[in-house]
Amino acid sequence: MSLLRRPSGRAVAVGLAGSVVPLAITLPVFHMLQPTLPADLRGSSLITEIAVRLSLSSFPVIADALAELDLLNSELGRIALTASLITDVTSWFLRACFAAAFLVTEAKSPAFTTKILASFVGFVFSVAFVARPAGRYIAYKRTPAGDLLSEGSFVVVVIAALLSALVTDVIGFKYMIGPMMLGLAIPGGMPIGATMTERLDSFFIALFLPVYMALAGYRTDFSELGGHEEKWCALELFVALCVAGKMVGCIAAGLFFAMPIGEATALALMLNIRGIVEVAAINNWGDTMKATAEHYSTLTLSMVLITAAATPLIKLLYDPTGRFARAKRRTMEGARPNAELRVMACLYTEDHAAPLIDLLEASGANHDFPVSLIVLHLTELVGRAASVLKPHKKSSTASSPSDRIVNAFRHFEQQAAPGAVTVSPYVAQSPYSSMHHDVCSLAHSRKANLILLPFHKSSDGARSTANSAVRSANRAVLQYAPCSVAILVDHGLASGSACATASNRNLLQRVALYFLGGPDDREALAYAARMPESGGTSVTVVRIKLRNWVGMGGHDEVRDEEVLQEFWQRYRDDERVVYVEKTVEDGEGTASVVRSMSDKFDLVIVGRRGEDRDVEGSALTSGLSEWSECPELGVLGDMLATAEFASKVSILVIQQQAGITTGGDADYQ
C-alpha cells in the first residue's frame, strides 16, 4: 500500500497512458476490421479481452522480472512498480464495479440486489476494520521483533486468505478479489510476508508453478498454426497493436516528464513484460472455449517472444549506475578545510552502530567543522514485492532495530556541541544484489562527500563471521559510488550494542595514517586532517618513500607534496600531530614499517590503492598483493586486516571518487 499512498506524477501518467492508449488503438481497429476477420474471432469477445489484458501490467510479474534484472530499487524500477500497481488496483476495482452492476441487472428482485451489495460492503468493512487490525496485532504485538509467525498465527493468516476467496466467490465476484484486498490490508514484510515467503514459496514456486507452466507448454501445439495463417496473423495483428500502443503511451508520458528517450523506452519495455498472469489468462480463455487451439498456441508463443525480446533490450538501454559516473565530483580533498563534511553512514546490523559512532566522534566535529550525517539502515528485502527507501519514522509499536540504531545516532548528535552534528536517518529494504543502487542514489541526492561502510567480517573475540552478501554490496558501492568511500574494519571498537557508546567515549585517541601517495592517500589525509579538531585525538602521519627515488614530476607527485605541505603548515605547532618519514627499499620494507608501528595505535587509516587506482609497478607495494584476500581493502588494508595485531587495531580504508580530474572540485564547493 505504501506505493499507492503518494505515487509520483510520472508513475500515474505512465500507468494511465500505458493502459488507455493501447485500448484506444486496438478496439477501434477491431470494430473497423470485424467484418473481415475469421468467423471464430468476429463473433467472439476474445479480442476485447486480449486488448484489456495486454493494456495492463501485472504487478507480481513486473516485480519478479525487475528483481531478476537487479533493477527493483532503481529509479525506473520504482516507477514501473508503482505504475503497474496503480493499473492493477484500478482494473480490479473496475471489474468489481462491473461485476456488481451485472449482478444487479440480472437480479430477479430488489431484495436480492440489496443482499448482494450489502454482502460486498460488509466484506470490505470486515477487511478494513477486522482483518487489518487483527493482522497488525499478529505482526506487531503477538510476534516478537525479528521472529517469524508462530504456527498458530501462520495458520490463521492462510485460513483468512482462503476464506476471503470463498466469500467473494459466493457473493458472485471473482474469487481473486478477496485475497488481493486482504493482502493490501495486512502489513507486508516482517513478519507476515517473510513467513509466507519462507513457508510457501518453496512449495508453490518449486512445485506447483513449474508444473503449471509445463502443462501450459504441453497444451501449446505449434502444428495447429500450419495452414491457418489467416487466423494467427489476424490475432498477431491485435497483439502487436496492444504492445505498440503500450510502448507509445508509456514513452509519450515519459517524454512529457522530461525523461530521456532511452529511459522512457526501457520503462515501456518493463511494463510490457509478460509472465504467469498472462499465461493464466490464456489458459482461462482456452478452458472457457473463447480461444481455440490455434489461438492458444499463438498467444502463448507471443507472450514468450515479447518477454524474450524485452529483457535484453532493457539491460541494453538502461544502466542505473550511469548517472553516478556522470555525477559532479565530491571529495574531501577538494573541499575547504572548514566546510561541512557530509557523511553517509551505512549499517547492516545494530552492531555496526557503535564503531561507526566512535569513528565519527573522533572525526573533529564542532561548530567550526560541522558534520552532516546521513544514517542509512540497510536490510534485505524479505516478504515484500517492492523495495523501500524512505526517511526513518519511529515505530508506533515495539522498538525495531532501525529505531535503536537511530536512537544511538540521535544520542551522539545530542552529546556533540550545538550545531556540530546533524543526523538525517533513512531506512532501505532491497535485495543485496541491487542494494548499492539505494546507497549511491541517496549519496547522490544528499550530495555526500563520503560513504562509510562496515566491513563484511565481524568478530566477537572468540570467532569471526563473514557475510558474502554484504561483501558484494560493499564492492558494488566502491565501483559505482558518486563520492569517496571508506570501509571500516572494526577490531577494537565494537561494544556489543548500538547504544553502548554512551559509556565508551574517546576510544580513538591514537590514529595513524600511512601515506604512500596517490589520490586515495590524499583523500585519507584530508579525512585525518579533521581529527585533531576533536581535541582528544592525536594523529601520526607516516610518509613512506623509496630510497634513492627520483620523481617523474607527474601530477599526482606534485599534488602529493602540496597536500603534505599544507597539512604540516596547518598543524606544525600542534603537539597532537606528528609527521614521520620512513625510507624503504621495496614492498617488503613497506610491510615491515607497517607491522612495526601499527600496534601503537587505535586506528590506522590507509588509502585503498586498488589495482585500478595504483601506479603501475609501484615498488612501494610490489609483491604485497599476491596474497590478498580482500581486494576491496587494497594492498595495505588487506595486509593490516589479516595481520597478527588485527584483533587490537581498527582499520579505515578510503577510496577517492574516480574518473574526474581534480579541477572539478571547485564546482562542488
Key features?
669 residues, alpha/beta, Na+/H+ antiporter like fold, Rossmann fold, two-stranded antiparallel ribbon, 12% strand, elongated, disordered C terminus
Q: What share of residues are in beta strands?
A: 5-15%
According to DSSP, the number of beta strands is 13
Secondary structure: helix percent: 40-55%
Indicate how many domains the architecture comprises: 2
CATH architecture of the largest domain: 3-Layer(aba) Sandwich
Shape call: elongated
Number of DSSP helical runs: 24
How many angstroms does the end-to-end distance come to? 40 Å
By CATH reckoning, the class of the largest domain would read Alpha Beta
Strand order of the largest sheet: 3-4-2-1-5-8-13-12-9-10-11
Gyration radius (Cα, Å) is 30 Å
Which parts are unreliable, with pLDDT below 50 for 5 consecutive residues or more? 493-504, 612-617, 660-669
The major pleated sheet works out as: 11 strands, mixed
User: Would you give the CATH topology of the largest domain?
Assistant: Rossmann fold
- Supply the helix-strand structural class: alpha/beta
Average of pLDDT: 85
List the topology elements.
Blueprint lengths: L1 H4 L3 H25 L5 H4 L3 H10 L3 H10 L6 H32 L3 H33 L8 H21 L5 H9 L6 H28 L9 H28 L4 H10 L5 H12 L5 H25 L4 H4 L15 E7 L5 H9 L9 E10 L7 E4 L9 H15 L5 E10 L4 H11 L4 E5 L2 E3 L4 E3 L1 H13 L3 E6 L20 E6 L3 H10 L9 E9 L8 H17 L5 E8 L2 H12 L4 E5 L26 H8 L8 E6 L9 H4 L1
Parallel strand pairs: 1-2, 1-5, 2-4, 5-8, 9-10, 9-12, 10-11, 12-13
Antiparallel strand pairs: 3-4, 6-7, 8-13
Helix pairs in contact: 2-4, 2-6, 2-11, 4-11, 5-6, 6-7, 6-12, 7-8, 8-9, 11-12, 11-14, 12-14, 13-14, 16-17, 18-19, 20-21
